Structure formats: structure tokens, C-alpha cells
UniProtKB/TrEMBL annotation:
Membrane-spanning residues: none
Domain of life: Bacteria
Annotated GerMN domain residues: 204-292
Protein name, UniProt field: Lipoprotein LpqB-like beta-propeller protein
Annotated coiled-coil segments of the chain: none
Signal sequence residues: 1-20
Assigned keywords, A-Z: Lipoprotein, Signal
InterPro entries: GerMN (IPR019606), LpqB_C (IPR018910), LpqB_N (IPR059026)
Length: 574
């Protein structure tokens, strides 16, 4: 996210030289724990309280750090003249809602006109120069020096960077779904970032800056940007009323025609999410892609990884067969061997993109075997079997099925023709994490979510040489909030639904860990089991009494889905 000068409402020309530096991510908030009414009163102030004491002064400074306008001009009103060189762009720390200000124990220079104030709180993480949130939860204590100038207190030793409450961060910054490229499949993958809220023209330019910088560390290795290191923006004009933009690039002459199309798709998909549906892309005076000088998100829909819209009702494994729920609550067996009783099925997963299904069959010997085939057709055994086969998940392209087998992650390649074969996967990063309880591949590809010893972790899936892939660095999401996790599923490209055996039974968390929303657990009875989630569809989860659905409707309560038991395994296509 870059601190870019405001673009004019209709037409703005941006110099091409270098993409501007990162802006800190502020918000409006109260440093000490204040009630809502007190917060509202604080937010109406435009500057420091002239007769405030040091603790209140520092609290106000953090409140005002929420506004990034004019290099945090509101926060700078709290500084002494000697602190005018405060480096507000050094870093951005997002704090939990509750934090306080106290006199620092390190108050060695204290006196009637000088004091050190300590800000104490919980850091959720930091926002990097490219606008990506990096989860790093930890208790933090930061000292701020204050001095009396005449009749008033001022801050003369501010810490570098900005500290902002989560609520203020959300008030002043908006989520951006930036799109990058899977280097193997040459498909677009989404990646969450944050840019300053603003007019469409400003949003568009900040969004292009994100693409220039590349994907977040959470997708590092799994995706790349088609913008070469030499790329610069020569000029950019926007017409918010018409919903169009014109961007001219330099430094892209070495791109192949295919790479130019992918770059254009990156821009079109990303800007479509910030209210600019059509973009004219130029390179050194001519169209970037001669055949399509103006691009839109719809033009590149076939380059976007992930499935289509999920069915209205999920599938469910119950009684050894795969069934599909209906509006009447009836779970009718699906066609083919998955539903006709040919196998005693304990778990299943389907791919919307390839139309295939994978099932776990329990044999008379007790061995469990993984099979796959077309949904509604005959199933073929894969090389994978064991005493415990579970947590099936398809990749975004629908040509790989992953499973946890005897506690180890396995990967099976399912080509359009020919038998399934096992594929290499380096899952060494999972080894020290403990027992693997569940895994879920993002439907769009590029990421894996893992439950290990009750903790939720997310990381990239990195392609290696010779068709092998590796699970990249994993980040734990919301320790302390998400513990005793039982099962997970991707609700959307950047949201994960979580079922836990805790006082927070159902939650939804962003893939970067910044946002955590509790889902009401009314009517559910622990322990919880399998769950199913898909964008725009009701949630399903099993508890001690059976299968339940939740639509987030008027009554905010879970409704029981008839005809299935507590052992049911619901799933939407992945």
C-alpha cells in the first residue's frame, strides 16, 4: 500500500519514475480501554487536548494515528517541534482493541517537565510495504517520551512507525483482492492486501502498486506477478463516472504475448474489484495486448482458478454412500458407484472444475482405500491406502486429490485419461506440528489450511522441479482465539470457517489472520465434527445430535437437517 498523492476526480497523470513508498496503516481508537461513548467524543476532536496529562496525550496520539491523510497530520499535532522528523512510514503495527497507557518503569529521565509513557497492548501483526498483513500475535510494550512545552505536554520521542487499533485500521483501509499468477498452471490466484480507502482513481493506482510489488509472503512461491522488475507506470488516467482507466506502462517490452495477456488479466481482475471495470492498457504508446487494447474482468474469466458456483445443497456421506441434500431435507444417493452401495464409503470430496469425486472405501479387512472417478460413474483405486485415510481435498484445477493417510499428507495426480498416480509432496514443515486433524486446499489453488494439534495454520503450496510440490512456511492464525480446532473449510478465497471444541464453537477467520468473526453456535451441541462451507451457500456442520445448517438469517440459529446422523460428513465441491 503506497502513500500516493491524491488523484484528481476525473483525470490524473502519474509520473512514471518509481512506485511510491509504503504508507502506514492507521485508524481512530482509544489507547486506554474506553467506553464507546468516550471513543466517539475523542474522535470528534481535531487535535490534542491542550490541558491533557501525559497518559491522555499519548492515548490521543494513538487515536489520531488512525488517519493517514497528509502524512498523519492529525497525529503530528501531538508532537513537539523537535519530533517533526517522526518516521511515520517506518512500520505499521495493528493492535487488538484493548490497550492502555501507563507511566513507564524505565522513566529514568522523569521530572516535572518530562516523562516516559508506555503503551501496552497485544499486537495482531504488521502491514508490510506491499499492503499485506503479516500475522505475528504478541504482547508488546512501547515507550513514548513526552515533554512539557510551556503550558502543554507534547511528544518529543515518538516510536518509529504507527500503532493502530484493528477497528481503526478497518475504518481507514479497505481489503483488496489482488490477482497473481500460478507459474505452473498459468492461472490467476487471489491474494489479500490492504489499501487506503479513497476515491476510485486513488484505489486503482494503489491497486496497481500492489501488483508491481508482487504477492504477499503468504502466497510466496505459489504465485508471481507478470510485471517485470523493470516495469514502471508512465501515466495513468481515470474516469470514475465512466468506470474506466487508462494506464501506460514502460519496461515491459521483453514480455511474451502470453505473459502480456496474463499481466492484462492481473490488472483487469484487480481493478474490477475497486470499481474500475474497464482498463485500457498501453505499453510504450501502443496496446499492451494488440488484440484487446481494453480489458475487463469478464474477458479473462477463463484464467481465474477455482470452481464455479457451488450447488444449492451440499453432498453428504451417510450410511456408507454419497448423497445429496435437497430442499425437502431428503438426502438421495448420487448416481454411480459413489452412491449405489458398491463401496462402504466413509468420506468423500468432489471437484467442481473437473467433475470428479474421490472417496474413502472401508474394506472388509479394515483397510481404507482412496478411489476416484467421475461423479456418477465408476471409481478407480489409487495407490493410496492405510488404516486411517481422511481429510480429502481437491486442488483448484481438479486434477489432484490430497489426503491425510496414517497421519501423513499424501498427494494423488488424477489425469484426464489414464490411471491415478501418486505425486511427490514435501510436507516436512508439518512434521513438528503434531497430529494433523484436518487439511483443506483453497478452491482457487495456491494455499493449504491445516489443523495441527488443535491449531489452525495456513501456508502456500510451492511448485518445485519435476512436478513435486512443497508445503511452504505455515503461519498460525489467532492463537488463543482459535484453539481446539476440529475441522475447517474455505468459505471463500480468503475466508476459512472453523469448528472448535471450545467456547467459540464456530468462527470465520481471514486467511491472513487479521479478521476473526464469531458465528453464533445456537442449537449446536459439542463435540462438533465435519463441516462444509462455500461462498454464497449455507454452512453445514455435524454435532452430537446430527447435521445442522446455518444461513445467517433472521434468527441466527442453526437448523437441523433431517434424515442424517451424527456420523454424516457434509461437503461442497472443492
Amino acid at each position: 500500500m503506497t502513500a500516493r498523492r491524491a488523484l484528481a476526480a476525473l483525470v490524473v497523470t502519474v509520473a512514471a519514475a518509481v512506485v511510491a513508498g509504503c504508507a502506514t496503516v492507521p485508524q481512530q481508537s482509544d489507547v486506554q480501554v474506553l467506553r464507546q461513548g468516550e471513543q466517539a467524543a475523542e474522535q470528534n476532536l481535531s487535535g490534542p487536548i491542550e490541558d491533557d496529562e501525559p497518559l491522555g496525550l499519548v492515548r490521543g496520539f494513538v487515536y489520531r494515528s488512525g488517519s493517514p491523510d497528509d502524512r498523519h497530520a492529525q497525529a503530528r499535532r501531538y508532537l513537539s517541534a523537535s519530533a517533526s522528523d517522526w518516521d511515520d512510514a517506518a512500520s505499521l503495527t495493528v493492535l487488538d482493541e484493548r490497550f492502555d497507557t501507563v507511566v513507564s518503569p524505565e522513566n529514568g529521565t522523569a521530572g516535572p517537565d518530562r516523562m516516559t509513557v508506555r503503551v501496552r497492548g497485544t499486537r495482531l501483526g504488521t502491514v508490510g510495504p506491499g499492503g499485506a498483513f503479516e500475522s505475528s500475535p504478541q504482547r508488546v510494550e512501547v515507550d513514548v517520551g513526552v515533554v512539557r512545552e510551556g503550558e502543554h505536554w507534547r511528544i518529543d520521542r515518538p516510536p518509529p512507525g504507527v500503532m493502530v487499533r484493528l477497528s481503526d485500521f478497518r475504518s481507514h483501509y479497505r481489503e483488496l483482492q489482488a490477482w497473481f499468477v500460478d507459474p505452473v498452471r498459468r492461472m490467476l490466484l487471489p491474494d489479500g492486501h490492504y489499501i487506503r480507502s479513497g476515491r476510485p482513481g486513488e484505489l486503482a493506482m494503489d491497486a496497481v502498486d500492489v501488483l508491481l510489488r508482487g504477492p504477499s509472503t503468504g502466497l510466496a512461491g505459489a504465485a508471481v506477478t507478470m510485471f517485470p522488475a523493470t516495469a514502471r507506470i508512465r501515466s495513468a488516467t481515470t474516469d470514475p463516472a465512466a468506470g474506466t482507466a487508462s494506464i501506460e506502462l514502460t519496461g515491459v517490452s521483453g514480455l511474451s504475448p502470453q505473459d502480456r495477456e496474463l499481466l492484462a488479466a492481473q490488472v483487469a481482475q484487480t481493478l474490477g474489484g475497486v470499481g474500475v471495470p474497464r482498463v485500457e492498457l498501453l505499453a510504450d504508446g501502443g496496446p499492451l495486448v494488440p488484440a484487446t487494447p481494453t480489458v475487463s474482468a469478464a474477458d479473462q474469466a477463463d484464467l481465474v482458478a477455482g470452481p464455479g458456483r457451488a450447488p444449492a445443497f451440499p453432498y453428504v456421506v451417510d450410511g456408507g454412500r454419497v448423497r445429496q441434500l435437497s430442499a425437502t431435507g431428503v438426502a438421495a444417493p448420487v448416481a454411480g458407484q459413489a452412491g449405489n452401495g458398491s463401496f462402504d464409503i466413509t468420506e468423500a470430496a468432489a471437484s467442481a472444475r473437473s467433475g470428479r469425486i474421490a472417496v474413502v472405501s472401508r474394506e472388509s479387512t479394515g483397510t481404507q482405500r482412496l478411489l476416484t472417478g467421475p461423479l456418477g460413474g465408476e471409481l478407480t483405486a489409487t495407490p493410496v491406502s492405510g488404516a486411517d485415510v481422511r481429510s480429502l481435498s481437491w486442488n483448484g484445477a481438479g486434477d489432484e486429490i490430497w489426503a491425510v493417510v496414517n497421519g501423513r499428507l499424501r498427494r494423488v495426480l488424477v489425469p484426464p485419461s489414464g490411471p491415478p498416480v501418486e505425486g511427490a509432496v514435501d510436507a516436512g514443515r508439518l512434521t513438528p506440528l503434531g497430529r494433523i486433524g484436518d487439511v483443506a486446499l483453497a478452491r482457487e489453488g495456491g494455499r493449504i489450511a491445516v489443523v495441527a494439534d488443535g491449531a489452525l495454520l495456513v501456508g502456500p503450496i510451492v511448485p518445485l522441479d519435476d512436478g513435486e510440490v512443497a508445503v511452504g512456511p505455515l503461519r498460525r492464525l489467532r492463537p488463543g482465539d482459535l484453539d481446539d480446532v476440529v475441522s475447517i473449510d474455505w468459505h471463500s478465497a480468503d475466508r476459512i470457517v472453523v469448528a472448535s471444541d471450545s467456547d467459540r464453537p464456530m468462527s470465520e477467520v481471514s486467511a491472513d489472520g487479521l479478521r476473526l468473526d464469531q458465528i453464533p453456535g445456537t442449537n449446536l451441541t459439542a463435540p462438533l465434527g465435519a463441516l462444509a462451507a462455500a461462498e454464497g451457500r449455507p454452512l453445514y456442520v455435524t454435532d452430537r445430535t446430527g447435521l445442522w445448517s446455518y444461513s445467517g438469517g433472521e434468527f441466527d440459529a442453526w437448523q437441523q437437517a433431517g434424515g442424517t446422523g451424527a456420523a454424516a460428513q457434509p461437503f461442497y465441491p472443492g
